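Problem 12. The chain below contains 286 residues. Write out its predicted structure in token notation.
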Amino acid sequence: MREICIAHSPDADDLFMYYAIVFGWVDTPCPFSNLALDIQTLNALALQKRYEVSAISFGVYPLIVQDYALLTTGLSFGDGYGPKLIKKSTTTLKKNFKVALSGEHTSNALLFRLKYPNARIVYKNFLEIEGAVLSGEVDAGVLIHESILNFDPSLVVEAFLWDIWLEMTHKELPLPLGGMAISRSIPLNQAITIQDVLTKAVTIATKYKPLLSKMLLERNLVRVNEEDLNTYLNLYANTQSISLSPIQLEALEMLFALGYNKGFYSSKIDPKDCLIPTEYTGLRYS
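Solution.
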């Protein structure tokens, strides 16, 4: 196998789930390299088929299903929590309020657009959203990633996307946010190997969380302090990130169905049909 480049975001959960490979804690059958880019940038590049293995927002996946399969590891789901719609405490939101979102193809943008179809949307890097609300450029904004942990005290939460998700699904399923996709151009046996390596990385990172977190902090690889890093990883990089579960599959199916029913996707897809057929290994060597 040639060198494999893994594109991921610079957010703490993605770094945590990948860096066991960088630190040499995982044996790899070939050289692995990594590239960190903003998640919406990764979504846009996935639409262009730029990287063979990439972190993506689940909200973009139905648009790239012909070119990418879903990996079953490196998962970020919300379970009782998630992105937050914030505004100034003195602001009353009208039906067509102006809002800053972190990217057209992010999962939070999909849910927001389903809930607030009349809102006027501007897209910004997620690090700029709080400032846009504070300056009055927009009436509200959806905070994601580490920005949900701390924000200016003059801002209040108008809505939790977790509550919107429950309202739409009528069922307490985990909220699908992000995962990993792999190009269908990669030979199947190699795709299985890549998935195995990444699964081991997330497993080892989770097992040795205090040590890995300390190393990330010492190298200034994350944007948050030790306390916030621990809180954030407990939310988005945990044992539920290691391997896709049946309830997570059900949640993905629900997300894709919601988007399809409202015309955001041209076809309704079943995520079970989008996974790598790992049984191939057993058949090949039987």
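Discussion. The chain has a mean pLDDT of 94. Students who got a different answer should revisit the alignment rule from Section 12.3.
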